[in-house]
Design goal:
Number of helices: 1
CATH architecture of one domain: Beta Barrel
CATH topology of one domain: Lipocalin
Distance between the termini: 58 Å
Shape: elongated
Structural class: mainly beta
Strand content: 35-45%
CATH class of one domain: Mainly Beta
Helix content: 10-25%
Length: about 150
């Protein structure tokens, strides 16, 4: 055995490199679109709000995407109305404004202040809570909590 037998061949290096790249690609693609993303509110959330002012809020589904500090998505009410939502998150707190045609003279139909996010041991958000208010209706703020929806 000479001193060059200890060094890997080009083929061995290529195989190791390919195996390494494969492992990286598997890790990078581990989250499906509905699977929780660590540290964000991306996903589906289901909760209840008092029925007030514009539509039936007794069952509310939020389908959110978070990219950096920006939140976007849709809010679907118990009566089937779908509204656009946009907001922001900074250091675990934020806000979400829900807009729609039912209140064209208002900045938002519903405003959610996000005051607390709950996480599991893996760092995935499991619920968030805060205060909800309906700016067009002059309502008082009411507490809410949205746990992560099934299959989200």
């Amino acid at each position: 055995m000479n001193r060059f037998d200890r060094w890997p061949t080009r083929t061995t290096l290529a195989l190791r490199g390919a195996a390494f790249m494969f492992m990286l690609s598997v890790l990078a693609c581990s989250n499906s679109p509905t699977e929780p993303v660590t540290g964000t509110l991306t996903g589906k959330w289901v909760g209840t709000l008092p029925t007030f002012c514009v539509t039936d809020w007794s069952v509310v589904t939020l389908e959110l995407n978070q990219s950096g500090n920006v939140l976007t998505g849709d809010v679907i009410t118990g009566s089937g109305f779908r509204f656009s939502a946009r907001g922001s998150m900074t250091d675990g707190m934020g806000d979400l404004n829900v807009t729609g045609p039912e209140a064209p003279d208002c900045d938002s139909i519903l405003h959610l202040t996000i005051e607390h996010v709950e996480y599991d041991g893996g760092g995935h958000a499991t619920a968030f809570s805060g205060q909800a208010r309906w700016p067009c209706c002059g309502s008082l703020a009411v507490p809410y909590r949205f746990p992560r929806g099934t299959g989200a």
